[in-house]
Design goal:
alpha+beta, globular, 39% strand, 8 strands, five-stranded antiparallel sheet, single chain
Length: 138
């Protein structure tokens, strides 16, 4: 009887692990965007990548992009022409945390932006919408 109870316990434990581990392993997210620029300046912002272990973060496999015009259309968002000048790079901040850095080479003169950021990593793909209001420079 003891062996049957052990077997049932280990089967239940294995089943629970099969359900829980896929939900937690490799689950990434993106933090709110931190804008470091103002209206009429080249755009500069950071998005922290959360939910992936910092020490095991694979920069070569984690990429951020501005979503395609088709993705904007599916999300019922306008794809403005100035979006093409935005670039996203995956970097490590001074504190060691991985981030997506969003920059433009030219000034952004639109006060309201809707960014649709696509993040791909080994464990999946994520689309995140950011609504941004740029303040005039101080």
């Amino acid at each position: 009887m003891k062996n049957i109870a052990k077997t049932i316990f280990f089967q239940a434990l294995a089943a629970a692990c099969c359900v829980v581990l896929p939900m937690t392993a490799g689950a990434a997210g993106l933090s709110p965007i931190k804008v470091n620029s103002a209206l009429g300046q080249p755009f500069s912002a950071e998005i922290e990548i959360i939910g992936l272990p910092t020490e095991e973060f694979e920069f070569e496999l984690a990429k951020g992009n501005i979503a395609s015009p088709e993705a904007y259309e599916e999300a019922k968002l306008v794809y403005p022409p100035f979006i093409r000048q935005l670039r996203i790079s995956t970097e490590r901040r001074a504190d060691g945390k991985p981030i997506l850095r969003v920059v433009s080479s030219s000034p952004i003169n639109e006060p309201a932006l809707n960014l649709l950021v696509e993040f791909n990593w080994r464990g999946g793909r994520l689309l995140q919408k950011y609504s941004i209001l740029l303040d005039p420079p101080k």
